[in-house]
Design a protein that fits this description.
Blueprint (H helix, E strand, L loop, with lengths): L9 E13 L9 E9 L4 E5 L5 E5 L6 E6 L2 E6 L4 E6 L8 E7 L6 E3 L8 E10 L23 E2 L2 E2 L5 E6 L2 E15 L4 H31 L1
Antiparallel strand pairs: 1-2, 1-14, 2-5, 3-4, 4-7, 5-6, 6-9, 7-8, 8-10, 10-13, 11-12, 13-14
């Protein structure tokens, strides 16, 4: 069993968008999708790659992490596992776009869906965000960033028809995905251990007081 990660703040990047390519039955171009990626500010760096666009990779192994995609009432949910990762990529010299993605290309039992697979295999899920030179300043895990610096539309680094900020799910029989149109970022601090202990203490004190009151009632009843 994987050990739980040290608890940092929880970061959830939520998004909505429109399906622009669809090969999966029951999902059509023009349909609206929603999704989210959740990770912790303590997510560990597990790899680094140099080159034209250096990349740092952060592992998302524990079940507290997630990558979710929903369209037309179908949900494709991936929970943290050994193949779920967040990648931060530095700008290349030509386009100058920062990018980061959360992806899983081999989720195995960490994947659940209500979509009728009918013998198909789920091959993976990915969400990608690209932004201008102000999106990030380093390859550090993106804990806080402005969504105003994200690049939307259908004219990404690969020219017209490429989507710089998009999401996709892929099955062995086809795939579905599209361009993201809105992004929100939520950061939640973990509950302090001291507050949890206080809460446990108050619950215990309340239970003890109730037992004492019940005992008092029984003594009065015996006296009667």
């Amino acid at each position: 069993m994987l050990a739980s990660p040290a608890r940092g703040d929880s970061i959830t990047v939520s998004y909505t968008g429109m399906i622009t390519f669809a090969q999966a039955a029951g999902i059509a171009v023009g349909d609206t999708f929603t999704g989210s990626a959740t990770y912790l500010t303590t997510s560990p760096q597990v790899a680094s790659a140099s080159g034209v666009s250096p990349t740092d990779t952060y592992g998302l192994q524990d079940s507290v992490y997630s990558l979710l995609f929903t369209v037309d009432g179908f949900s494709f949910d991936v929970r943290g596992n050994r193949s779920l990762a967040l990648n931060v990529q530095a700008p290349d010299p030509v386009y100058g776009y920062w990018s980061f993605n959360v992806q899983d290309e081999n989720p195995g039992p960490a994947f659940t869906t209500n979509y009728a697979l009918n013998g198909q295999a789920f091959l993976g899920s990915e969400v990608q965000f690209e932004g201008n030179s102000d999106l990030f300043k380093s390859l550090a895990l993106p804990t806080t960033f402005s969504t105003a610096n994200i690049i939307y539309g259908d004219n990404g680094p690969n020219g017209p028809g490429s989507y710089p900020t998009c999401a996709i799910v892929q099955l062995s029989g086809g795939f579905a995905g599209g361009t993201i149109t809105t992004v929100t970022v939520t950061q939640v601090a973990p509950e302090p251990a001291s507050l949890r202990l206080i809460g446990i203490g108050l619950l215990a004190a309340g239970a003890l007081a109730r037992r004492r009151r019940r005992a008092g009632h029984l003594d009065v009843a015996r006296a009667d």
